[in-house]
Amino acid sequence: MDEKEGINNEQDHDESEMSFLEHLEELRWRIIKSVLGILAGAVIAGIFINFIMDDILLRPATNTIPPLKLQNIKPFGQFTLYMEVLFFGGVLISLPNLLYQLWKFIEPALKPNERKYISSVVIFSSLCFISGIVFSYFVLLPTALSFFATFGSSSVENIIAINEYFSFIISAMLAAGLVFELPMVTFFLSKIGILKPEFMRKHRKHAVILILLAAGILTPSPDITSQLLLAGPLFILYEISIFICKLSQKKSEQNL
To answer: Based on the structure, what is the number of domains in the chain?
Structure first.
């Protein structure tokens, strides 16, 4: 009996080890597919790199009154900048693929009735993130850059280093994209039972204060207008999150 139990224990150990190795193999392929997607997105961004640089990323600086002056102060500054833009462009273009690979990796841990929502989650998450980027580009950045262009003494000419400019606008767009993922975060917190719609309604006043603080921290400029422009959508997202939390809770109760 002892020998049989020993053999069974060894078999169980081997099966668990194989399962762990298979898990690592799955992770490896998901990472490879994600990297290939980023590379493919970077190639697409490279085809339109001049349009992306001149007509998209540099346009907010030229639309201010007076227009902001940008300069390159490093020997390989523009080359490094173009490589960074290609990378971020590749990530943005391949975002649906990145989210899909992530959810396919954690799919075995999901319940059968939850796996059918993977495609919807990927699409909705991508739309939320892109919506945040669009909002930042067309609302936050023009307001913030206009503030920078007009603030200060007229005797001082504002000339901004190109790498600082791109770091500013890219970080602002990424921050807005992440903030707009609030409904998706709420969905998953409610799915695992951490967040309840009653809790969100009860602490709505506290949420308003936190939203104003978050807007003050995340807004790229210190003027009150830009902060309110971000706080408004954040409050709307909070209300949408309450509805999503309630909807998710109802579905969970029906499945039980």
So the answer is: 2
